[in-house]
Amino acid sequence: MTKVKSSIIAAASLLGVFVVVAGIKATQVMAMIEAGKNTPAPSETVSTFTAEVQHWPNTYTAMGTVEASEGIMITAEVAGKVKQINFKSGEQVKKGTVILIQESGNEQAQLNAAEARLRLAKSNHERLVELRKRNTVSQSELDTAVQQMESAEGDVGDLQATLEKKLVRAPFDGRLGIRQIDLGEDLQVGGAIVSLQATNSVRVNFPVPQFWLVQMNRGLPVEVNVGDGSDATMKGQITAIGAEISTATRNAIVQSYLNNEKSQLIPGMAVETKVTLSDPQEVLAVPSTAVIYAPFGDTVFVIEKDKKAGTFKARQQFVRLGKARGDFIEIVDGLKAGDVVASAGAFKLLNGQTVTVSTKPVPEYKLDPTPADS
To answer: DSSP strand E in 113-220: where?
Structure first.
């Protein structure tokens, strides 16, 4: 019995000690929490930027496709074996240049026979004309002679046209592509011979959504990046606007002609096109680095002076964003011109936190930055 009482007393003593220690620790934690509430967050150093009204060019940008002003695949108009090839792949040719000759021995022999029939028909016609004047032959005999002569002329013309088609000519000035045929090959009607592209001037076609289409007009300036990794651009203007909008993409095709005498643009190339639509737009802008992006809303930290304490504080402000251009982004709502925002270091700020404005130089923000290769 004595042992049981001793155990109970010991357990009660330990429980009392535990309660006392827990009470002391709870008091300490509460004191620390209260002290934390009353202790301001440490000051952070940030760079600032004053929200300003900027004039941005009103432009539309899209990826376009280069096409030759004239471009075809030259094909065989008549069947025949390749007798002679007069061109090399990739060379420039003039309009009318004979680039290929097909075998034409059979057609030439048929032409000789047709010409002989034509000479006989003409001679017979002339003789019957004289006889008709003396009423020696009937009018029907003369009519038959006329029909025979005209039929012979048609046969000769048909064979001459066939022989001409066997001399394959370049239909316009341009640059030839890769040869598709070989000497002695039996070409069929429509058989591919070589591509011909007139590239001194080119078309650039690019898609425009229906929202932007109402702002497009013929004559608007177009700037095309040549796509060779440099900053080189070519200038042109809108020359045609598609008459319909695709039901699949809700885009229309807009076209621009460009002078391409230096052959900087190659048919099939993808290029960036920029159309200047109208006068510049006024926008309220801040650097993109000033914006804190979040699922619940985009914010910036406005830096305001605490007149009582003589310090600066950060106030988190929700904003509605517009278009981005270069290092800047448009603020549609939430700020006004002259508001000072944290442009660097905003990610480490808390609402109401004291800040120190940095005096160190900050990078220059540009509308059209051109980063240098390192």
So the answer is: 167-169, 174-176, 186-187, 192-209
